[in-house]
Specification:
Blueprint (H helix, E strand, L loop, with lengths): L8 H23 L5 H15 L7 E6 L6 H9 L2 E8 L2 H13 L5 E5 L12 E7 L8 H11 E13 L1 H6 L1 H18 L8 H11 L9 H11 L2 E8 L2 H13 L9 H22 L10 E7 L15
Parallel strand pairs: 1-2, 1-4, 2-3, 4-5
Antiparallel strand pairs: 5-7, 6-7
Helix pairs in contact: 1-4, 1-8, 2-3, 5-9, 7-10, 10-11
Length: 318
């Protein structure tokens, strides 16, 4: 649910900083974030969908907006799609967690910078790619942010964002969430998981602020207008995840009610495999045929006029 329309940008940014700082240490476990082969496949697929293809290319200097704990960017660095990463976020707590993960993975070409998206502390034409995952809906002034994205891109550079909630999809997600809450006690008994007692600090910070951190839900037309106004060429907007998203929200809701170490491995394996199976149905059957508006997540990309060097030039297919 988006934040109150009367909330000021300063309040929205403060809430996002405090909420994500508080959530940083448990964020990867909460969302099932993976930095292995499975996570890399997921992230590569999202970028391919957003750009319309990769064609074996790579980006030399990449800037991630709203990096969180590094799900999107660190997996792309491991794949070699991104050579040098500058990870930014409004939350120092998230960046601290990302830096620790990068060190554990042995990734040296990673820099973190705490900053707002609307005022980036980088020179003009510094990056080949500006990208992010599930971040645009947190930013109050999107016109200013998109102007900044274009400013720091080199000629021919790309912008790519995935995981943005659609207005219709946001409403669709409410049903599996409610179903998951109702089913959670029976599910815990079935799999033998212990009920998770939420610490008071998490209740007072996380739950109190969670409903205020989201500012926007988008239509494809909204995203196309942002790209057009900012002056991007080769504009693309698509949708992803319908069946897999509904199932994923139900899974996350029941699992969040249990102590993580009490959830059996067999359940986790079933949950992951079933989600991937439904994602394949979405990717191969539904996404090519249904309007983007129907999907929970939207993907958006564009190109700044000009031409990148040979080392940083994956051309979108189609």
């Amino acid at each position: 649910m988006p934040a109150s329309p009367t909330a000021t940008p300063e309040h929205i940014k403060d809430v996002n900083t405090r909420y994500h700082d508080a959530a940083a240490e448990e964020y990867d476990a909460k969302w099932g974030i993976d930095f292995g082969a499975a996570g890399q496949r997921q992230v590569r697929l999202k970028l391919v969908k957003a750009l319309g293809g990769l064609d074996g290319g790579r980006f030399g200097d990449a800037l991630e907006i709203g990096s969180g704990t590094g799900y999107f960017s660190l997996n792309l660095v491991q794949l070699g799609v991104v050579e040098r990463l500058t990870a930014t976020d409004i939350s120092p707590g998230m960046l601290k967690r990302l830096a620790a993960t990068a060190e554990a993975l042995g990734l040296d070409a990673v820099t973190t910078v705490a900053t707002e998206a609307e005022e980036l502390p980088f020179d003009d034409e510094s990056f080949d790619l500006v990208f992010g995952h599930a971040v645009l809906h947190h930013i109050p002034h999107l016109d200013r942010a998109f102007a900044e994205f274009r400013r720091v891109l080199r000629p021919g550079g790309m912008i790519a964002f995935a995981g943005e909630p659609s207005r219709y999809g946001d409403r669709l997600a409410a049903l599996p969430k409610r179903t998951g809450l109702l089913a959670a006690p029976a599910w815990r008994r079935l799999v033998g998981a212990r009920h998770r007692a939420v610490p008071e600090a998490e209740r007072s910070v996380g739950h109190a602020l969670e409903s205020e951190v989201d500012v926007h839900a988008f239509t494809p037309a909204d995203l196309r207008a942002l790209l057009r106004k900012a002056g991007f060429d080769e504009r693309r907007v698509g949708g992803e995840e319908l069946l897999s998203n509904a199932w994923g929200w139900a899974l996350r809701t029941v699992e969040s009610s249990a102590e993580p170490d009490s959830v059996p491995f067999r359940w986790r394996r079933f949950a992951f495999r079933s989600y991937i199976a439904l994602q394949k149905v979405d990717t191969n059957l539904l996404e090519p045929r249904l309007p983007a508006e129907l999907f929970y997540n939207l993907l958006v990309s564009g190109r700044k006029a000009g031409r990148l060097g040979r080392d940083s030039a994956p051309a979108p297919a189609g």
